[in-house]
Amino acid sequence: MPFIYFYFMIDFPVAKITYKRFNSIENPVFSILIPTWNNLNCLKFCVESIRRNSHFAHQIILHINQGNDGTIEWAEENEISYSLSAQNAGVCYGFNAPATLAQSNYLVLLNDDMYLCPDWDYYLWQEIEKIGHPYFALSATMIEHTCTKNNCAMAPHDFGSTPETFNEQALLAQFDKIAFHDWNGSKWYPMVIHRKVWNLVGGLSIEFSPGMYSDPDFMMKLWQAGIRYFKGVSKSRAYHLMSKSVSRVKKNNGRKQFLMKWGISSSVFSKYYLRMGEPFSGNTTEPPLTPSLKARFLLCKIKHLLQS
Q1: Beta 114-116 vs 31-37: how paired, if at all?
Q2: Most Cβ neighbours (<10 Å): which of 74, 162, 240, 275?
Q3: Is residue 42 within 8 Å of residue 241, measured between CB atoms?
Q4: What is the pLDDT of residues 243-263, one digit of tens each?
Q5: Domains observed in the chain
Q6: Where are the alpha helices (H) located in the chain, listed in sequence order?
């Protein structure tokens, strides 16, 4: 089924973005992009885990939304490069802006409420070397304290839901003993992507600002660009506090935007094309046109016509 593109903008104006670069890391393996919005305690928690648990040296780049909680001063004191917007610019600008400061050819997209477990980067780099080309999307595997509909995460494994309640000692004793598998899809962060591919598809689509459904849209853009290697790496692990910054913003109707832009629903794309959460099976392929998929396509077409 051919995808149908509709350009759909929403009213989400963003003020001028400014930049500050510190060149404290030579030849970083990854440039790690972290949007943050007045969430300094979580951000410190996240950055400390990168510095403590990484196998290689990396560049950290923030996008600071507002930063009126001391984030700007903290970034300056720690010589962390950043982009800055005076208001919340959302995650689309929040990743696109700091990407312009990246020194590495490999970009890692990371939320500020994640703790990266020891050698998270080593296992991703092993996978990159094995692939041998830049046309991939790789994700680490999240450990979460609450069960959700995300079948790509290990849950429930409760090591705390805030930096203050986080039980680091217990996590470090157990994180690598939780049984899981490599999985199809790679839609979730932490995600590593080659800068060549990032530039090819233009980063995250700002029409999805402040960011709902920008991640499946990014996956669809990769699919359209011919990427077929989408893998979640089980050994690369990150604990997710599941801090809900999105509860503070007026959300865009990303579900509708995705349908109007691509002609199919995000759920159809994730289930039948990316095969999200299934045990990893190599390069993805076009799904067989089964009766079930035909019915889903028909339903998408009806919804698309009704919302046009």
Answers
A1: unpaired
A2: 240
A3: yes
A4: 766 667 788 999 999 999 999
A5: 17-255+274-286 (3.90.550.10)
A6: 40-53, 71-77, 90-99, 120-131, 168-174, 195-201, 214-224, 254-262, 266-268, 291-307
